[in-house]
Amino acid sequence: MKAVVCEKYGPPEVLKIREVPKPIVKDNEVLVKVFATTANAADARIRGAVFPSIFNLPVKLAMGFKGPRKKILGLEVAGVVESIGKNVTKYHVGDQVFASTGSGFRGYAEYVCLPEKSVMTIKPSNMTFEEAAAVPHCALAAYYYLRKGKVGEGQKVMIYGASGGIGTFAVQIAKAFGAEVTGVCSTANVELVKLLGADKVIDYTKGKITQVDEPFDVIFDTIGKASISDSVELLKEKGMYLSAVHLELSRIFEGIRISVKSSKKVIGGVASYTTENLIFLKNLIEEGKMKTAIDKTFTLEQMAEAHAYVDTGHKKGHVVITVNQEN
After folding, report:
1. Domain spanning 137-267 has what CATH number?
2. What is the rounded average pLDDT of the residues 305-322?
3. Transmembrane ranges (predicted)?
4. Secondary structure of the chain as H, E, C letters
């Protein structure tokens, strides 16, 4: 089968298309014929070894020093179950599924074997494979943090980075929870964020965000670029600042200081993904409350080009990779 292999850390050009053995399904696994995957910022960071300095050594100890031990990257897929192990009861041949591949990666290939207990479920009936492939990683992260922030009916929520992979889903999920949503993005992305349902949109290129009509209950920084101290000033008492990118040492210490010395809380950490949460998101999609914003689509052979585009930092929503073609 064809797969994109990352032999060493580096620029997008290190990604090479190769013929590799097709995986053999184990007793507790399903073999998925992959129709679509994504090139997202997390994959790009792994490929480029873009790790925070204080975590560089432990991450490379876990993942590999000169290159990733798991050569086939790809954190999320959508496809069709081609075969199942003898102990599998939850899925059947022909099921259309979408899944997070987790720490095993392997999504950049024509086929992937996933344990039955993976973060996986039946694909939303009203989504294409390309649209569904972009959901498991970013939408699950958005849902995790918004739940951490206890976002609910009538709350005022700011989404910083509202046009990005996590941000586009966060706007829609917060709206589904009944919040009043203010999106923050660049000029070029204002209309997209409005289309996703944001009640208000702030263009950060027009100046520092220091004044708002009313303080926010929750500020969710999806890209790790908002100033924590400036953001906290925009929060109500007992408000929460959520950070999906919370690994720089200075930001960690600043968050701890604020959480200890005030009623406002800074919450970061690594998001956890569950099948239960993926099913919740699937239901939102089928109810028409969430959709995928696709910026560009590439083929598996164009993976290096797709990663180069992600590296620009200017993608809107999601960059999707078409792998196998539907019959």
Report:
1. 3.40.50.720
2. 96
3. none
4. CEEEEECCCCCHHHEEEEECCCCCCCCCEEEEEEEEEECCHHHHHHHHCCCCHHHHHHHHHHHCCCCCCCCCCCCEEEEEEEEECCCCCCCCCCCEEEEECHHHCCCCECEEEEECCCEEEECCCCCCHHHHHCHHHHHHHHHHHHHHCCCCCCCEEEEECCCCHHHHHHHHHHHHCCCEEEEEECHHHHHHHHHCCCCEEEEHHHCCCCCCCCCEEEEEECCCCCCHHHHHHCEEEEEEEEECCCCCHHHHHHHHHHHHHCCCEEECCCCCCCHHHHHHHHHHHHCCCCCCCEEEEEEHHHHHHHHHHHHCCCCCCEEEEECCCCC
